[in-house]
Amino acid sequence: MKRVAILISGGGSNMVRLVEDMRAGGIAGEPVLVLSNKADAGGLAKAEAFGVPTTVIDHKGFPDRAAFDAAVSDALDAVKPDLICLAGFMRILTPAFTARWGDRMLNIHPSLLPLFKGLHTHRQALSAGVAVHGCTVHKVTADLDDGPILGQAVVPVLNDDTEATLAARVLTQEHLLYPAVVRKICADEPGQIALSAV
Fold first, then answer.
1. Are 138 and 149 in contact (CB under 8 A)?
2. Which residue in 109, 133, 138, 175 is the catalytic one?
3. CB-based contact 125:166 (threshold 8 Å)
4. Which among 83, 86, 90, 171 has most CB atoms closer than 10 A?
């Protein structure tokens, strides 16, 4: 069983799906930590309800990103994760952190990378007039929303879509894609995952 740490900043819906899949035996992993940079992150209570250990490291209490990342590294060292899943963790990580953990760190991003990096991806997609949108699971590197792609899920962009309706459709696919990719990694299976709701 792989030891899985999950980093969140908010409600943690992708974290919940990963933990549910581990507990159901889909992912051959054990959630050993849910860490948040925000004490009021809704996902913390959800993790605690699963019986998963949680910790908060508030980025506002550190003088710079390097000091914050060092504290996060210390917390990860304590649980010895085989895999780290960023699930709505809204912090840009330092090169030193990604060099240390990047070979075992994943992120899910709400666009079909390399399109629409950064924030407000659904707004970017609507502004660009694309016919399809989606989400990507990728390995984390020092470059923002970069790194080898491990899986993507595609959804149609409808004529009457708003940011909210498009985001909801993409989130449904995130909840399918992230566990599917983590299942393959924890089973040491090669290859990418491709899902489509088109």
1. yes
2. 109
3. yes
4. 86
Q: 65: annotated binding-site residue?
A: yes
Nearest to 97 by CA among 70, 131, 74: 70
The string over 83-119, giving b where at least 16 C-beta atoms fall within 10 Å of a residue's C-beta and e elsewhere, is bbbbbbbebebbeebbebbbebbbbbbbbbbebbeee
Output the average pLDDT for the chain: 97
Is 120 an active-site residue? no
Question: Could you say which DSSP state residue 64 is in?
Answer: S
Predicted confidence (pLDDT) per residue in 83-127, tens digit? 999 999 999 999 999 999 989 999 999 999 999 999 999 999 999
Sheet-wide strand order for 105-109: 54-56, 29-36, 2-8, 83-86, 105-109, 132-139, 149-156, 193-196
Instruction: Give the Cα separation of 191 and 148 in Å (integer).
Output: 11
Neighbouring residues of 49: CB distance < 8 A, sequence distance ≥ 6:
none
Among 37, 42, 140, 50, smallest CA distance to 90 is for 37
What domain range is 160 assigned to? 2-196
107 is in an annotated binding site: yes
Number of structural domains the chain divides into: 1
Is 12 among the annotated ligand-binding positions? yes
